[in-house]
Each structure stands twice: as C-alpha cells, then as structure tokens.
Design brief:
globular; 3-stranded antiparallel β-sheet; two-stranded antiparallel ribbon; mainly alpha; single chain; Cytochrome p450
C-alpha cells in the first residue's frame, strides 16, 4: 500500500511493537525457547526448522497478538500441520490455515469488543484509525492473519540460517559460547549475509530513471535486498561473515522508510534468545553429515521461491549440556 491508506492501516499496529511490549514478550520467549529445546534435548539431534524454529516463531507471534497460552497447542497443531503426525491425512487436507485464523481471531476480537480487557487483544480491538474511526473487526482479523504469515516464516528461516552458520563454523561458535554479548552482532551480520527476504515486487507509479535505464510507469520491478546487503560500495569484503563489522546494522533486511518491517525489533529478540539458549543448553553443535554430507561437500535444500531465502530443512547433532 501507499500512504495515506498505508498510514491508516499501519496505525493499528501501534500498540503491538512498543518497547514495553517487547520487554513483556522477552520474558515469554526465554520460557518458550527452553520448552521447545526440552522436546528434543535428550536425543542429541534435531531437524531445526520444523523441530524448533517454526514452532518457536509461531508461538512468539501468537503471544504477541494475545492468543491465550491455553490455545497455543491448538494453534501449533493446526498451523504446523506439515509436521509428521501433527494431523491425520484427512484432517490436513481439510485444514485451511487462513480459515482457522479467521475463525479464531474473529472470536477473540469480537469478544474483546463486547468485553474489553487490558491485554493485547483488547488493545488491538480498541485500536483506531488516525481519524479516530473504529475499524471493522474483519480489518483487524486480516491484520492479525497477515502478521502470522509475515512474522512467522521469515523469523523461522533466520533462526535456522543462524544455527547452520554456527554448526558450520567452529571458531564462530566458540566465540559466541565464550561471550554472549556478541550474539546481537551475530544476528545483525546474519541478517545482512543471509536475510530471509530474498525479493519483493513493486509497481512503478511514474516513469523514472534507474541505473541508466528508463523504467516506464506501470512496470513491475523486483527488489533484491540481499543484493543491496552485499554492495561492496557499502560493505567491505561483503561476501565474508564478519562478526566485528562496524556497519552491519546498515543492512536493509527489514526495508527502510515508511515500509520498514514493524516486527524488526521482535525478530532481533527472537534470533538472539534462540541462539543463546541453543548454545547454553549444548556443548557441541555440528551439521549432521548423514543428511547434508561431509565437510567440503555439504548439500542443502532451499525453498523454491523468489520471495524467501530459506532452508527447507536443517539436521544438526549436538551434545546436551544438561
């Protein structure tokens, strides 16, 4: 969207990503990370994307939007139905995640309109447009559903990429194990080097010049933030993962300007906590050679999409610290 419609809709997110709300979310995320790790810690091996990153990211968004913890297992069961055994084949075929989210959030928000409460769902139900107008519940439901799609998968891919970098690079892993204050820098360089948004599309509204080419009005343009994040004019030795890169935060993994990803601060917290708890609760972390090949001959499968850069799976082995 363009302003003013964009400004109007984005106003509804104002109460979700405040510093106070981020602090409240952080308390939940420490518990959530440990709970997810508990599910596989004794096995010494895990497929990171489906076994940790996706449920962790999904339940983070659920908590942010105020979904009661008593409903978290139900959300995970229906929205991560691709996990083996999560649903029967008949249930999986009959389950439409968007229909499920529509039903749940329509119920939640309608209830908060009728019975206001001082919680996240109550704040979302009471949110108004800049002119003070109260939006229809369906508008809020669409927004909640969008946040689930946009905020869940991207963060899960980021966390998975981070675990791969650590498992592939023993020196880097050792540095972060020795000094957790470096994890924030690690997440920033990860966003720059291996950010989950590969491409996006825009429509030019007016004819313009770009890099010496005329782009007529009405042209669909593909924007590649990953290419900008490896621009040698901005980043020295751009294809090297540099934990000490002083300008790593200049990346555009979250976009820029009025369209900057509103969930960027939350994604940073998720990445930091997920990495820290993985390191705290293991003493070694390596790539599973049976699934991905030996050192020097690794093989990884990525999702076949223009939009996301994301591993389709990542198998790692570890030694539990507990």
């Amino acid at each position: 969207m363009d302003p003013p419609r964009h400004t109007k809709i984005r106003r509804l997110l104002g109460g979700l990503f405040t510093p106070r709300r981020m602090e409240e979310s952080e308390d939940f995320l420490w518990r959530l990370a440990d709970r997810q790790i508990d599910e596989f810690l004794t096995t010494g091996t895990v497929e990171v994307l489906h076994g940790f990153a996706q449920p962790f990211a999904l339940l983070t968004i659920a908590d942010l939007l105020g979904v009661p913890e008593t409903d978290h297992d139900d959300f995970r069961r229906h929205l991560l139905a691709q996990q083996v055994g999560a649903l029967s084949e008949g249930e999986a075929l009959a389950t439409n995640p968007l229909d499920y989210l529509d039903t749940k959030f329509t119920t939640y928000l309608t209830d908060r309109r009728t019975h206001p409460q001082d919680d996240v769902l109550g704040a979302l139900a009471a949110a108004t447009y800049p002119d003070g107008q109260l939006p229809e519940v369906v508008e809020l439901v669409r927004l909640a559903t969008f946040l689930f799609g946009a905020g869940q998968d991207t963060t899960a891919r980021l966390i998975t990429a981070g675990i791969r970098h650590l498992a592939e690079t023993p020196d880097l892993q050792a540095a972060l194990r020795a000094d957790h204050t470096l994890i924030g820098d690690f997440v920033e360089e990860l966003l720059r080097m291996d950010g989950p948004v590969k491409g996006d599309f825009r429509l030019t509204r007016t004819t313009t010049e770009l890099a010496g080419r005329t782009v007529p009005a009405g042209t669909v343009v593909m924007v590649l933030p990953g290419a900008a994040n490896r621009d040698p004019a901005r980043f020295e030795d751009p294809h090297t993962f540099d934990l000490g890169r002083v300008n790593a935060r200049e990346h555009v993994a979250f976009g820029r300007g009025v369209h900057t990803c509103p969930g960027g601060p939350l994604a940073r917290i998720e990445g930091r906590i997920a990495i820290e708890r993985f390191l705290d609760r293991t003493t070694t972390l390596t790539i599973n050679a049976d699934r991905h090949g030996p050192v020097g001959r690794r093989s990884y499968r990525y999702e076949p999409t223009y939009i996301l850069r994301g591993l389709a799976e990542l198998h790692v082995d570890f030694t539990p610290a507990d």
